[in-house]
Design a protein that fits this description.
Layout lengths: L6 E6 L6 E5 L21 H15 L5 E6 L8 H6 L3 E4 L19 H18 L5 H17 L10 H14 L6 H11 L21 E4 L7 H17 L13 E6 L1
Parallel strand pairs: 3-5, 3-6, 4-5
Antiparallel strand pairs: 1-2
Helix pairs in contact: 3-4, 3-7, 4-5, 5-6
Length: 260
């Protein structure tokens, strides 16, 4: 794959019947690799996307990975796609399956990195859930900082959502505060067992950018967007720690797809 682009066949022109290819990762042609597939219901948008993803996996010798968020639950049962593209599915809230991802894993655990991460999560929680105000953002930031401090020096220096919930509940009790929208969100994240937690049989995934996953969230009554955000944030932090990619043609990519 080194030095080669991903030239994906997407069809033929209507008049000349000329083959049309999409050089997805050639930055001499495209300023970015964003892609939108639009059409009326039933015209085959999802099948077209699965064809593109399968071609990408095969052409890259399975070195280009992706994460697919299945909001409708209409792809997770496509056994042929999962097998040919070598995709690992996770059906959240179905059969006790949780995602082996810990959103609190950081590249470093110094005070500044922890403080920035805690603030980022609080801001993002508030942007996704309009019920979280300034007070809740501050409480979440302090709770996250506190759970990292509690795990400092341990073999696994990162907390899980149960840790954050327990700290937040203790803070609220100390201040004689009643449960609010923040506690509700944290309790859902902990009780639904969506993400990896301490005591799990296997450790969390070390690097998401080396895995190809399908995350089925269609059975979740709430938190779909928050789950997607937390996964994407982990990927962003991983990729930000990598060296710059060479210009023109990348030999390796990572892709994120959401199917609404």
């Amino acid at each position: 794959m080194k030095g080669r682009g991903l030239d994906i066949f997407i069809g033929k022109t209507l008049l000349q019947k000329t083959d049309v290819f999409m050089a997805l990762n050639n930055t001499s042609i495209h300023a970015n690799s964003h892609l939108a597939i639009m059409g009326k219901p039933g015209v085959g948008k999802t099948q077209f996307l699965l064809k593109i993803l399968t071609d990408i996996r095969i052409q890259s010798s399975f070195q280009t990975n992706f994460i697919y968020f299945d909001y409708k639950g209409d792809v997770v049962d496509n056994e042929r796609f999962l097998k040919v593209a070598k995709v690992q599915p996770f059906q959240l809230l179905q059969g006790g399956i949780s995602l082996p991802v810990n959103p609190f894993v950081l590249p470093a655990y110094d005070e500044q990195t922890i403080n920035v991460s805690a603030r980022e999560k609080a801001e993002s929680f508030a942007s996704i859930n309009s019920k979280l105000g300034v007070v809740q953002k501050g409480a979440l930031t302090e709770a996250i900082r506190a759970v990292y401090a509690a795990r400092q020096g341990s073999e696994a220096p990162y907390p899980d959502f149960q840790d954050v919930l327990e700290i937040a509940l203790a803070m609220y009790e100390e201040d004689n505060k009643k449960d609010d929208s923040l506690i509700e969100v944290l309790r859902d994240l902990a009780d639904f067992d969506l993400f990896w937690r301490h005591g799990s049989e296997n450790p969390p995934i070390d690097r998401l950018t080396t895995r190809t996953l399908l995350i089925d969230v269609h059975a979740m009554p709430v938190l779909k967007e928050l789950v997607a955000y937390l996964v994407i944030e982990r990927i962003y932090k991983e990729m930000a720690s990598l060296p710059d990619s060479p210009p023109m043609i990348f030999s390796r990519n990572f892709l994120i797809f959401r199917n609404y």
